[in-house]
Specification:
Blueprint: H1 7-12, E1 20-23, E2 27-31, E3 39-45, H2 52-58, H3 60-77, E4 83-85, E5 101-105
Antiparallel strand pairs: 1-2, 2-3, 3-5, 4-5
Bound molecules: adenosine monophosphate.
Adenosine monophosphate binds near residues 18, 30, 42 and 94.
């Protein structure tokens, strides 16, 4: 996978549209195109790193940037409370191999409703 055929790199480059929620120097947050919860935002680093473990090895500070951005998104959208999920590997549900945190909140009904 190179950045040229990575869909998230293309979103970051502005070649594919997204519903942007937040942008910092290092991350972009945008709404998931197929939301699985009332709040479902992806936080994506601007550098191409394939998964969360690779990020921890190559650029651990980016994980802090993702977590901080997730908190800002949740502060704005769901009273500061959120799940932050990193699917890692195809059999764990990862479909885009550019690390991203799913910021999710189930809304007023809660997860078990
Ligand atoms: P994962 O399956 O954990 O790799 O998450 C990838 C997520 O990216 C999925 O939840 C998709 O719905 C989402 N997704 C794929 N393409 C786009 C897109 N163009 N804009 C927004 N979200 C997308």
């Amino acid at each position: 996978m190179t950045t040229a055929d990575c869909i998230f790199c293309r979103i970051i480059a502005g070649e594919i549209p997204c519903e942007k929620v937040l942008e910092t120097d290092t991350v972009l947050a945008f709404r998931d195109i197929a939301p699985k919860a009332p709040v479902h935002v992806l936080v994506v680093p601007k550098v191409h790193i394939p998964n969360v473990a690779a990020a921890a090895a190559l650029d651990p500070a980016i994980l802090g940037d993702i977590a901080s951005a997730a908190q800002l998104v949740a502060d704005a959208e769901c009273e500061g409370q959120f799940r932050l999920i990193f699917n890692t590997g195809e059999r764990a549900g990862q479909s885009v191999f550019h690390v991203h945190g799913h910021v999710m909140n189930s809304g007023a009904l809660g997860w078990d409703a």
